[in-house]
User: Fold these one by one.
Assistant:
Number 1:
Amino acid sequence: MHIMKKLTMSMYLGVLLMLVCLLASCGGRPAITMEDNGLDEFGSSDRVILIVLDGFASRYLNYLDQDSSLYQLLQYATYDLDGQTIYPSHTCNAHTSLMTGTYPDQHGLIGNVYYDQNERISQKNISADLIDQKTLFEIAGEHGKKTAIVSGKKNMLTLFEKGCDIQATMSAHPDYIGEALQLDDSENNDQYYDYHLKTTSWVFEALKSVLTEEKPDFTLVNIQSADSIGHRFGPDSFEVAQAVKLIDQEIGKLFSYMKKSDILSDTAVMILADHGMSPVSKAIPINVLMNNNFDQAAVVVDGRNAYIWLNGDDAAAVTTFFEAQEGVARITSKGSPEAQALRVDCERCPDLILDSEPGYLFIPEALLWKYQGMHGTTEDSDMNIPMIFFGSGIPQNQEMADAKIVDLAALTCKLMGLTADGFDGTVPRLTAPGAEAVDFFTGQGD
Ligand SMILES: [Zn+2]
């Protein structure tokens, strides 16, 4: 009798244990714990990894609950859940501000695109030659450090090719990384969604491989899915919520991997976004308006911004015309105090920068179906980005006051002991740990 009872008990326990393991692995939510490192200010770290969650607006954190990896990480992290990116809030120039520690008027990239005066066409800001400042790759290289980029956006490789030792993206990567999925039909929403989720997991796997095989000192990572899926389905969509949950799970798995393989003991990890995402549903067909009304001026469109080069047309006439257009919220002129304050006054800067009203973007009507989310303005939904740092040299359970994306080059250099100057940003100031995060994640706060 006794033995039978014992057997039954152990069977129960066994089944229970199996269930717990199953639940844990299905949820992809390994418990996150770190030893107290006793730091109350930023220390030092042999290695730094910057993980940019592209287009991951601060409010996307509301899609996560208290069991999520990011939520669990907060008690071991230094964070600002409402950090600030730069204006205009776009991928190429925000990454460049991150990598140079400077504002657009210093590094020379305004948004994702510019007007090429010689070719008379719109060009993408994806060439390393366009960057007027030294990047963290170049600074690290000067100090004999090994650098790597692992990116779900291919353009990041050309933009930051200077001083980068190891490059990995879906189409080009070292052999020890498995093959990536190809996107067959970008107009099929199901395929598009599926591709970006699978690519997210691929990038995280590629990162683990690069960390293990190469042991880089400084690594830049771009996770593309919150942005790509946010653009197509909108920031309030089920699809974005799922992408956010997947990213969170992958961060949990990365944490476990780094801890198990002892990478975390000498590595600081900074998780951040490059910009946010706002819902859009209305088009401002600015190319047509420009062609029909002005002879010389040229415009290039960049989501919720349009950049105008006057080429001899009258600034006041162009400004007055577009101020009267439905959906245009603001026009900033080169040389004005406003342009200086927004840090978009420079030789290569456009003559006029237009911002859209909430709900609008600059695009031909025919392409509107592609976009339910967009960014670029100074609105909180476009500008506010989470910043969550943990690992070697990072104080635990600390908040930063007003952390900015331009501050992280200075912080990276401080952590790694690299000497560099000319940054606009500074090492973020720490404040006492606050209760705000709890409100944020439970949706009780703002
Ligand atoms: Zn982006």
Note: Residues 19-28 have pLDDT under 50 and may be disordered.
Number 2:
Amino acid sequence: MRKCINLLLITIMCLFAHSSFAVSIHFNSLGYLPNQPKVATVSSEFESFQLVDAKSGKVVFENKTSEPVSQSDINVTVRFADFSAVTTVGTYFIKVSDSVKSPAFPISNNVYNSAFYTSMRAFYLWRCGTAVDGTHNGAHFSHEACHLEDGWLDSIGYPNKQKDGVGGWHDAGDHGKYVVNAGITVGMMFVAWEQFNNKLKDYNFDLPKSKSKLPDFLEEIKWETDWLLKMTYPDGSGRVSHKLTRTNFEGFVLPELDTEKRYFTVWSSAATADFVAVMAQAARYFKPYDKAYAQKCLDAAVLSYNFLKINPEDHKFEHRGFSTGGYQSADDDDRIWAAAELWETTGNAEYLADLETRLTNYNKKVDEVWDWGGVKNMAAFCYIQSKRSGKNEKLLSEVKKQAIEIANTIVSKAKADVFARPLGEYYWGSNGTVVRQVYNLQVANSIQPDKKYVETSLDAIAHIFGRNVYGRSQVTGIGINPPMNPHDRRSGGDTVVEPWAGYLVGGGTKATDWQDDWKSYSTNEVAINWQAALVYALAWFIE
Ligand SMILES: [Ca+2]
Ligand SMILES: [Ca+2]
């Protein structure tokens, strides 16, 4: 009954939101950086526009919109309103007629800071094995300590035995924990740390008090790496369980109400390789703060790498009655990533040889579209950006060339899309790839700096926060008319109307089929892998 009342309220709020905002104007509702391009997409009937200072009411800029442009996959004809000439910090709105104007937005160097805080803090709110609570815009979210029995070993040959698997983050809209998806998630967050730690090291995410001396950003990642260390088999072999879940998905309840037994499942070589990669990264980035922990991570990475070396076949996850997320993936990309990160951490020639052999064997060394099922880019980009010597110059220049070509393709796709979407296709979770491609663009920019890579990265973020066909933010609690009904068990299971804040939803699986409906797991779920890509993209552009 409570749910019915919530849904009714939400419906009323959505109707109100729709009627109060002009969706004739599709823009980045977070705002714009002063010295970067500023473009909105407007309905084709508007041939001119004004930019108005929200405080004084004065028109600070006016111009014609572009010629009309049509796009068939979303069946729209639109024009562009370009106000890049305005570089003065302030709060503005776009006006296309006496009655049609956008909500106010800032032009400032810190327009991404608050979204970055909230989207990174979302990981804390995903913590399993502990109580969490947080407030966003006056709404309070909390759950009690959960899943303290994690987990049971029956599935891997130890009937009625338990082992400590408490901790980590819930994976997505469900409460399960999956190593393959944790891999790309933590991997992207460590890349953010590698590249932007000057900005991140002093960032405070209001985490619970702890004795740790770690910067908050690393402390939150450690919540996950601590759990990952528990996912190895108890036999000391270095094999890693594919996941820790129930046999089937739980209902739409808060985590502490999900009390059915959860199991360590059988291992897979993809999960084991991703474990190696992430533990090798952890060894690098925790070393300045905690040498003992870094060594523990490195030892775990080497043990599992050596296990994979003597077990070279692609050992798939066997479901054996589990119907929770499959995360089934061929292991070649995971193995090359493992080799890359171990080389970057240790400089050991054996790992470099493994990496270079595998990279040589790929014709396509860099991917345009990628997610948990294909992490080759993590290896290729580590190789490109590593400062270590000894690289095969011919191979390196080929990988760089391909990275540039792919980035140029991404740029051209954004330019061809009326909402500057840099990804030319739609599928489950494609919002995550829209922001993950920012890593492709960052790598290209590091090889051959060009403002088009920076601008397309900002286009990707703008698309997520409102410059899209819906004219709506794709992140709960942030930006214009954000999702209210994500496929998220915490949001569905509590009595708070607003959804848990800061979460990127998966987005349409076709150009116009996104539904803000909790039942639509294929378009409106939340997930750690997409979230990490959002955190990465925003981290580049925070002040
Ligand atoms: Ca894979
Ligand atoms: Ca709720």
Note: Residues 268 and 317 are 5 Å apart (CA to CA).
